[in-house]
Each structure stands twice: as C-alpha cells, then as structure tokens.
Design brief:
globular; 2 domains; 4-stranded antiparallel beta sheet; Rossmann fold; 40% helix; alpha/beta
Length: 245
C-alpha cells in the first residue's frame, strides 16, 4: 500500500530523516518507535505532506505522492492525528468533525449536503465516545477528549491509512489503555492500515504486528515486537533493557 523509498529530510545542517526506505502492507498495524529526536514525527510529516523531502519518493497505492500537498493526500486516503491536537478551539466537537467530512472524497462522491455531512460527523463522534460532547467547544474539552476527537476527525476523512502520532501522550494509564483498545477496534471495523508512533512501549509492543525503530534519522530495525525487543542496536539506542512482550 505504502512505499517509502530513500526518503531524506534536512533542516539546515541536521538530517532529520536519513535515506529511509520502508514498505507498509494493506491492513497492517505498524508501530514506529525511537528516542526523542529520532525522526519519527518528521517521517510522518513527510508521508502526510506537511513536509516536502529533500530526496526520495513516497508512493501510495501506486500513485507517486511525493510532491502532492496534504489535502491531495487526504483525498487519496491518507489521514493522521497530531502529537499536539490541531483542532479549531472556538468550534464545537461536531463542527470540527463536520469540516473533516466536507474535505473527504466521500463528501464529493456522494454529493452530500451540509446536513448529511453533520449527520456523518455525529456517527464518528459516537464511535469514539464523544457524542454527548458534540456541542462542547474544543477549548473546553479535556486532553483525553481531544485525543478522541483527533481520531474522530481522522476517520471522517474516510481514510485507508491512518498515522497515529503519540495519541497516548499526557494520558493516565487507564485513558491510554482505552485509546489503545479504540485504535484496535477502528482498525478492525474500518479495515484500516495504521502506522502508530508511540513512546508507551508496554502498549505499543502488544498492539502491533510489526515495529519500525528509528534513531538519529535512520531506520535501525524492522521486525516483530519479539524480534525488535531483543535487538542489541535497539536496546542500546532506545530501550536500555530488553522489553518483555
């Protein structure tokens, strides 16, 4: 589904992503881990179109999207969440998700009305457990609720691939477990492919089928959670000790 070929991104003299190549198959749930500053979010920004690469190619379902902007990639089926929720704070939860529906290919293909878009947005809010918060302004929502709303907005784009960027950051253990279960359920119900950036290893290592590990802009490991947890390079660069999975 997704092919990243020799992707490179520089910021001045810093190489944030250094000649990274990876393939993601349809229906996979892939974890992306590594220490702070390893290039994980930069890679997500490149795939989603928020950054343009200095080298390499990105191909999604046979289409070269390397030079396409984020909106064009969303229309092709690439969606994402953000470490820091990027929602419109003075709009309600329902309005935020409705705008995502309006920007989706589904809205155009079905020639939906604004009322129909709002009804679909209610459906996504219900799925993530925020239906009762539909009329609450985003600025009045708790962090946990904002994380859920980010997932609802990503779903509203009618994606094939969702990149989840540290969706559990700042959450307590119960909230984090709830979000992990929700991500798994969304994958099954919507037949999604998921790339999941996360620092909470106890959850990510039991929630994904495959793990990519980055360090200093390079991909240093690609394997099952069991394989990666025993990789000496990964242990030295990130984990500090072997993780039991």
């Amino acid at each position: 589904m997704l092919q990243v070929n020799n992707l490179t991104k520089r910021f001045g003299g810093i190489i944030a992503v250094n000649d990274v190549s990876v393939k993601i198959g349809r229906g996979e749930v892939v974890g992306l881990i590594g220490p702070n500053g390893s290039g994980k979010t930069t890679l997500i920004n490149l795939i989603s179109g928020f950054y343009k690469p200095d080298g390499g190619r990105i191909v999604f379902e046979g289409v070269d999207v390397t030079k396409k902007d984020p909106n064009e990639r969303v229309k092709l089926g690439i969606a994402r969440t953000f470490q820091i929720p990027r929602l419109i704070s003075n709009m309600t939860a329902l309005q935020n998700v409705t705008y995502a529906v309006i920007g989706s290919r589904r809205f155009r293909e079905k020639k939906m009305t604004l009322a129909e878009a709002a009804m679909e947005a209610l459906y996504y809010l219900d799925i993530v457990g925020l239906l009762r918060k539909r009329d609450v302004l985003c600025r009045d929502l708790a962090l946990y609720e904002l994380r859920l709303l980010e997932l609802a907005r990503a779903l509203a784009a009618n994606p094939k691939l969702i990149m989840v960027d540290e969706v559990m950051a700042g959450l307590n253990p119960v909230e984090a477990d709830n979000v992990a279960k929700l991500v798994q359920r969304l994958r099954e119900e919507f037949k999604l492919t998921i790339v999941w950036v996360e620092h909470v290893l106890r959850i990510i290592m039991r929630s994904v089928e495959r793990v990519l590990v980055m360090n200093e802009g390079k991909l240093i490991a690609d394997g099952t959670p069991h394989e990666v947890s025993k990789d000496i390079m990964v242990i030295k660069a990130y984990m500090g000790e072997e993780v039991i999975v």
